[in-house]
Amino acid sequence: MPLARLHAPFDHPDWIYELKYDGWRALAYIEGGTCRLVSRNGNPFKRFAGLSAGIAAAVPGRVVLDGEIACLDGDGRPQFWELMRRRIAPTFCAFDILLLNGRDLRGLSLVERKRSLQPLVKPPLLYVDHIEARGVDLFKSACRLDLEGIVAKLANGRYEPRATTWVKIKNRTYSQAEGRAEFFNGR
After folding, report:
1. Active-site residues: which are they?
2. Tens digit of each residue's pLDDT (9 = 90 or more) over 102-119
3. How far apart are CA 162 and CA 87, in angstroms?
4. CA distances from 59 to 73, 74, 92 (A)
5. Which residues contact 113 (CB under 8 A, 6 or more apart)?
6. Which residues make Cβ contacts (< 8 Å) with residue 185, sequence separation at least 6?
7. Which of 65, 68, 132, 171 could form a disulfide with 93 if both were Cys (CB 3.0 to 4.6 A apart)?
């Protein structure tokens, strides 16, 4: 699912709001006691063998999860540079489920998919919880805690990559954003 961008948070009864975890977006393909982590560009993540093994051990059956690979500090806050250095064990922050034991869930509403996801999540996975209708308050909290921002999602939205049902609202003062352009552009 692509993320559109907005510059300001909003409240709406048809939307749910999640914290945006700062890391690498990934799909987790779990089947036969193995897990493959794949980037949003379709490239396999090869440096997360331990995380993949942990996910495979924690999640039974044939499952596809959507989430973010992140390194979390002791307070549960994502630490992007630690993800780059790999000094903290990564966590898979699961926010959606697309397949459960061979059943395609993409046609269900987001809140129905999240209900199916939550009971499956145990370490090294983290369930990305949400609040309903009150995006402005969550965004203010995210900024106060120096987090990357929030993601607003249409509660009854299906998982349709061509639809704009997910929107990210970034914290413009997020301290971990400093220096990224130079780092990734090799300057």
Report:
1. 20
2. 899 999 999 999 999 999
3. 37
4. 23, 24, 12
5. 96, 97, 98, 105, 106, 159
6. none
7. 68
